[in-house]
Amino acid sequence: EQAPDVPTYVTIHFEKGVPTAVDGEELDSVALIEKLNALGGANGIGILDIVENRLVGMKSRGIYETPGGAILYAAHEKLEEITLDRETQHYKQQLALKFAELVYNGQWFTPLRKAMSAFVTSTQECVTGDVKLKLYKGNIIPASVTSPYTLYSEDIATFGEDHSYNQADSEGFINLFGLPIKVQAKKGLTYDK
Questions:
Q1: Quick check: 79 and 104 in contact, CB under 8 A?
Q2: Is 183 exposed, middle or buried (0-12, 13-18, 19+ CB in 10 A)?
Q3: Alpha carbon of 89 to those of 23, 58, 148: distances in Å?
Q4: How many CA atoms lie within 13 Å of 148's alpha carbon, on the beta-carbon side?
Q5: How far is CA 64 from CA 1, 69, 168, in A?
Q6: What per-residue confidence (pLDDT) applies to 173?
């Protein structure tokens, strides 16, 4: 409620998944977080009230404030949307839950965490670019995202008639994709009970 009535825009640059600059100013990691903490804090960003599941099974309530972390997380996720292929992005999202669990439970120095980190490092090879965010009254709103490695192409992602690909090809794909379900239905195998 006390945040400014005018939004703040911030642009974060990433190189291979690592944030390196804010609004065109190259910063080391500590200075970068400090700058984002100040910007985010002034705009009511990054307040989290959560009931957690502790390792021993009990629940505990925590209220955290991490404006810089929230901004970085949102920016990084937006950049990955355009630079990671679907399967890698989805698998990384699943892996993130286990990774967070390992860290929360104090298991950083484990073979599994090391292997998971290697996977994550590999996924970041092309996560380079700029993300512009609008910070306003506790909200982080994407404003733009660009990358030399973007996999998004407006020309290809069209639903209209064009010369990028033959729209009729989708019929064959849909038939093949749905074939296992069709076979199950013919056998009377339904799973809606």
A1: no
A2: exposed
A3: 27, 32, 18
A4: 7
A5: 18, 11, 51
A6: 82
| Token representation of residue 166 | 């033959």
Per-position DSSP letters for 109-168, written without gaps between them = SSHHHHHHHHHHHHHTTT--EEEEEEEETTEEEEEEEE-TT----TTTS-SSS-SSS-TT
What the block records as the tokens of 67 is 């404006």
Which tokens is 161 given?
Answer: 């008639």
Residues present in the chain in total:
193
Q: Quote the CA–CA distance of 96 and 119 in Å, as a whole number.
A: 11
pTM for this one? Answer: 0.85
Tokens coding 162: 């064009």
Q: 141-192: per-residue pLDDT in tens?
A: 999 999 999 999 887 766 666 666 677 777 888 888 888 888 888 877 766 6
Looking only at the bridges linking them, the beta strands covering 129-136 and 18-22 are unpaired
Residue 188: CB partners within 8 Å, gap ≥ 6? none
By the 8 A CB rule, do 46 and 33 touch?
no
Q: How far apart are CA 34 and CA 99, in angstroms?
A: 25
Chain centroid to Cα 66, Å, comes to 17
